[in-house]
Design goal:
Length: about 290
């Protein structure tokens, strides 16, 4: 990232403006993506020196990623700007907790935090709450619903006419029209019949004590590393020991000691010894 690009990025506000969302999206998309080395240097400055400028630059470089994720939640009928704002909160939490020693990119770590904040916002603002909350909205709701029975989607002129008749603004008419055109959804079921494209229901995002994004990332990394180590360790065994372990521990229908003893022409006790020796070699190989 050049000095000029860095200065332009630092001038970008982290808050999402409500009046010109398109300009905000263009601005965040203009911020260059960090290289591996740039990201590591910034992360180390934040982690070891608590450099807040480094934290800000890491956040700014990933705002475009938040926009990308937030767009996938617009089917809930919630404002994109609000979804982006909540995602930005998750991104900042991820940057604060990011450990450069783990050897993963920030984007892989932050996705869990970003989605967690957006999910929380969706839960609190799902359409089952209220459609009309103010007196003007209730008046508009009942009058507009009656007119919608004979009208398609309102044109600009029709929206202006309705607004003049009811003493509200055209923007309020359009907003209420969008609410009336939205759908109600089951709290614990998919929101459409297409399983491949179904939008998860709010029940899928209820709080769980074991759903901390940092823990999930750590557990996923541990499981992947353990699987690789186990696979490599098994390949160091001789063919007979490997066959005994696979059939005693990994097969769907596990073989007995006597079955293996009959096949290899030795005693069941000898098979047990070979099995224990193989397990010991695996533990030593993984520990090493």
């Amino acid at each position: 990232m050049t000095t000029q690009q860095l200065q332009q990025a630092q001038a970008l506000p982290l808050a999402v403006p409500g009046d010109d969302l398109d300009a905000y999206i263009r601005a965040v998309n203009s911020v260059p993506v960090l290289s591996v080395d740039e990201e590591r240097q910034l992360a180390e400055r934040l982690y070891f020196e608590e450099d807040l400028d480094a934290a800000r630059n890491m956040v700014l470089a990933h705002l475009r990623f938040v926009v990308h994720i937030a767009r996938s939640y617009t089917g809930y009928g919630l404002p994109l700007g609000d979804l982006i704002q909540e995602g930005n909160v998750g991104l900042m939490k991820a940057v604060k907790r990011f450990d450069p020693n783990k050897g993963v990119r920030l984007v892989s770590f932050a996705v869990h935090w970003i989605k967690a904040e957006i999910h929380e916002y969706v839960i609190k603002n799902w359409r089952i709450v209220k459609v009309a909350t103010t007196k003007a909205q209730r008046k508009l709701f009942f009058n507009l619903r009656g007119q919608k029975k004979r009208l398609g989607r309102l044109t600009t002129e029709e929206a202006q006419r309705v607004a003049d008749d009811l003493g509200v603004t055209p923007a309020q008419v359009k907003e209420m029209e969008g609410r009336l055109g939205a759908f109600d959804a089951s709290f614990d079921g998919p929101t459409n019949d297409d399983e491949d494209n179904a939008i998860p229901s709010p029940a899928a995002y209820l709080h769980s004590d074991n759903s901390d994004p940092a823990d999930l990332v750590a557990e996923e990394d541990y499981q992947e590393r353990s699987s690789r180590q186990l696979g490599s360790a098994i390949m160091t065994l001789d063919e007979r020991s490997r066959d005994i372990l696979e059939r005693r521990w990994l097969a769907d229908q596990k073989a007995t000691l006597q079955e293996l003893a009959d096949e290899y022409g030795v005693s069941a006790e000898r098979i047990r010894q070979l099995e224990n020796n193989a397990l010991k070699k695996l533990r030593n190989a993984i520990a090493a």
